[in-house]
Amino acid sequence: MTAVRARGGAFLAGTLARFRTLTPVRLVGDLLVLVAAILLDLWPGPWAEETGTGWTLVGFVAAYVVLLPLRHVLPATSMIAGAAIPFAGPAFMVVLSYTAGRRIESWGRAVVSTTLTFVVVALMWDWEARPIDLDPVYAMLILITIFGVGVALPFLVGRYLAQREALVRAMRDREARMRGEHRLLSRQVRLRERSRIAQDMHDSLGHRLSLISVHAGALAMDPSLGEKQREAIGVLRAAALTGMGELRSIIGVLRAEDGPDDDPATRTAESIDSLVADARKAGVLVSLVRGGQAHPLPSRVSHAAYRVAQEGLTNASKHAPGAAVQVTVKYEPDALVVEVRNNPSRTGSVGGSPGVGLIGLTERVRLAGGILHVGALPAGGFRIAAVLPYEETPLPDEPEDEQDETESPRGIRKWAGVGSIGGATLVLAVIIGGFTFLGAQPVTEVVSQENLDRIQVGQPEADVVRLLPSGDEPLVADGERKSQASPEPPGARCVYHITDEQSYLAKGTRVVRFCFRDGKLVEKKIHVQRNGQ
Description:
By secondary structure, the chain is an alpha+beta fold. The chain has helices spanning about 1-20, 25-40, 55-70, 75-85, 90-105, 105-125, 135-220, 225-255, 270-280, 300-320, 355-365, 400-405, 410-415, 420-440, 450-455, 460-465, 480; strands at about 285-290, 325-330, 335-340, 370-375, 380-390, 445, 495-500, 510-515, 520-530. The strands form two sheets. Strands 1-2-3-5-4 form a five-stranded mixed β-sheet, with helices on one face. The chain has a four-stranded mixed β-sheet with strand order 6-7-8-9.
């Protein structure tokens, strides 16, 4: 029950956030799509010949007005419901299918929704009201063609465009992340050079100044020196001590990174209380929960715990303003757990992907020997949690494949859109291949000119039947073979066959009629069945 409520809350929050992103341009665009779909399906659509009036027309327009805007919130449901409407036109289904392809993210849901739509289309298909007496295989192929062109292809086009947009966003995020990493790398190089300069100054110049001060102090104790010499030596020793003090100040500046926030000596796990208090003063709805027996922590681990809490509060204030935040510091038997979680933003703003701050935090936790978890919560909101060891750990080596992970995108991004293109290719292959295969099948139920000349009026029926063809018949129904023929002889039983000699100039199909009575052929007559009559 809790999971259902959480999903419902997340769905409602996502829907409200989507409505907040509506702009006048998008509203006008949706209105134009609605009007265009209604007009295209009314004329020259399926309602062109018999225009709906009264309640029928009201129901037609109402279904379009309800399902077309609803497709942004419930894309799969709208597509399946649209297929279940008997009077739904092609423009209506194309819009619903395209939007479903754009909105449905999971491949599993995409396959299930399109399969259910095909089942609904097949159930709604009027198998009896076919224009000609088609073989069931041809009828199924026509149904697949209509579904593929009107539903499957728009769905796959929408899905491909959605995946392409996701890939472009991922590439832009990756580019921004690489720029941030480059800035961090440049900063690390500068800090490393500062530290090297400070170390050189401390080792060389500091040592020499110390020697000068020591020697000056020893020389001042020489009783053979006069008052002026002692005064000069005192000045020299004071200058050496002043130089050492200034050297220590310079070394402190060179070794400083970003100020006191990165000083492990002043930013520890115990300082999280003051960090939370400062956040409260700034207006953040934050609570602090501590648990377990406090345990002494190494400097690196304690500073990493502080940085986890600091980064979590910073991200919550930035990406979820107004949301409640909970900071947890729990001393487990074997590790320290620091967690920061926040509820969804009250203003409906959507947070971006993890940036440079989380990348630096991941590295800091790794150097402390811990593990960092970052991700969205099922019911909305965000969570940052770190598990840190109690003991000092050696600095881990740099992962060998880190450069590869930075240079190449994830596999799912490399293959984005390939499934949609493959699906569209499969749909077209089934349609074209099906018609090609069926069109290549031999049509043998035609009367050859040779047999037609051998059949004469007065022959026994058994001899005539042996000369008549059998096999797959052409796509011409019995009703269309005899609708334009002359009246049949009284008391005769007539059969109609198509001749193998046809002419485009005749603008129709040559049909031969054989009529039998009392076991003999009483009529052999050829007529042309005109097209469209």
